[in-house]
Specification:
By secondary structure, the protein is mainly α. The protein is built from five helices and no strands.
Length: 83
């Protein structure tokens, strides 16, 4: 997996669930969402973003979670974003 463009963020996680998830995925050699580094770096500031994202993609809605993920992935692709 390519490193982030923000090494100060990537290499300075604070204690919390995302730090553990990152370490677990790295130990397995698995890919994971790079935004987890931001969540681990500023957990108090990014909690609302994580909750917002989960509600947006997984909360009650007329579109299935899978279709919402597909729309998000397509939008990201069109914007040149890897998320």
């Amino acid at each position: 997996m390519d490193p982030m463009f923000l090494p100060g963020v990537e290499h300075n996680p604070k204690p919390g669930p995302y730090k553990g998830l990152i370490e677990q995925m790295q130990a397995q050699g698995a890919e994971y969402p790079q935004i987890w580094h931001l969540f681990a770096y500023l957990p108090g500031m990014t909690d609302h973003l994580a909750r917002f994202t989960q509600e947006l993609l997984r909360g009650p809605a007329p579109l299935s979670p899978g279709l919402r993920e597909l729309i998000a992935a397509y939008t990201s692709l069109k914007n040149g974003c890897e998320f």
